Amino acid sequence: MTQLLNNAHDFSITNLNVHNVAGNATYNNRSSGKSALERAYPSLVSSLPSDRAAPIGLEENISAGAAHNSDERCDAPKCHPYTRVAVQDEIISWITTGDMDEEPKKILWLTGPAGTGKTAIAGSVAESCSEKGILAASFFFSSFSGSEDRRLKRCFVSTLAYQLRRHPSLSALDQHILSTIDHDPTVFRTRLIDQLEELILKPLRHLHNQIDASTTPKVIIIDGIDECEATNPFNRPMEEEEAQSIKEKDQLEILSLLLRAATDPCFPFRIVAVSRPERILSTFFSNATESTLELFLDDKYDPDSDIELFLQSKFAAIRRRYCLPPSWPTLEQIRSIVSNASGQFIYAATVVRFVEDPSNLPQKQLDRVLNLEKSGDLSKPFRALDTLYTLILNASPDPLSTVQWIWVVHEERVEDSKRVPALFWRYYMDSTVGEAERLLGCIPSLVSLPPPEDRTSLIKFYHKSLLDFIDNQWRCGDLWMNFVVRSDPDRRQYVRILKDQGLTVPDQDREDFLFHFLSRKPSMRPESRLELENCEAEDPHIEETLRSCDARWWVDMCLDNTSFDQVHRGLNATIFLHQVHARVMPHITLSAVVQAVEEGGS
Question: Which UniProt keywords apply (predicted)?
Answer without folding.
Answer: Repeat
